[in-house]
Amino acid sequence: MAVTAQQQETASDFIFPKSYNFPPFFSAQPTALTRQAQLRKWSIFVQKYCRHHRIYQLTIIEVLETPLFHNVALKKRLSLKDAKAVIDYMVSKEGDERAEWLGPEKSSAWIWWRKPEEWATIIAAWVEETGQKGTVLTLYEIVQGEATEKQEFYGLDMDILRKSLNTLVKKGKAQIFGTDDQQGIKFF
């Protein structure tokens, strides 16, 4: 018996897509066109799941038994090979580069439900709206400060924050000061 959306919402407050309750969703489809559509659906699902749960990085072997890749009610799951194929698709241009492998062994990956450039745009907009251009802010203030508690980037992984801010530095819109544990940034 498939888990209903209402049951899943109660369990995790996340609404799974309809395809999650369709057994073929968990098996690699043999025709190229169907496979591409399947991978696209998996990519969207992984992004939404990670966004909802504020997951920035996946270790593939660790998530194989979680609801992300394992539907207990259907007794269906993605194999390690198929889970890696989903992430490979997400890494590709065709998958809109919504993931990035961490290392050649492909055991873990960043999941870009927001790419670093997108985070940078959101943070820069907040700086603009709050009149903080020209002010030096610590990285900690940006992701853990009282002023950002209601912002989407509150609690953002520090590595992603650095990647995001570096996109602004490259564009000449910001400058980072200090060492890794005491970094600040000035926005222009």
From TrEMBL:
Primary subcellular site in the record, as a coarse category: cytoplasm
GO cellular component term of the entry, any: ESCRT II complex
Localisation per UniProt entry: Cytoplasm
Keywords: Cytoplasm, Protein transport, Transport
GO molecular function terms listed in the Swiss-Prot or TrEMBL record: protein homodimerization activity; structural molecule activity
Gene Ontology biological process terms from the UniProt entry: macroautophagy; protein transport to vacuole involved in ubiquitin-dependent protein catabolic process via the multivesicular body sorting pathway
The keyword Hydrolase appears for this protein: no
Pfam families linked: ESCRT-II
Family from the record: Belongs to the VPS25 family.
Designated name of the protein: Vacuolar protein-sorting-associated protein 25
Species of the source: Exophiala mesophila
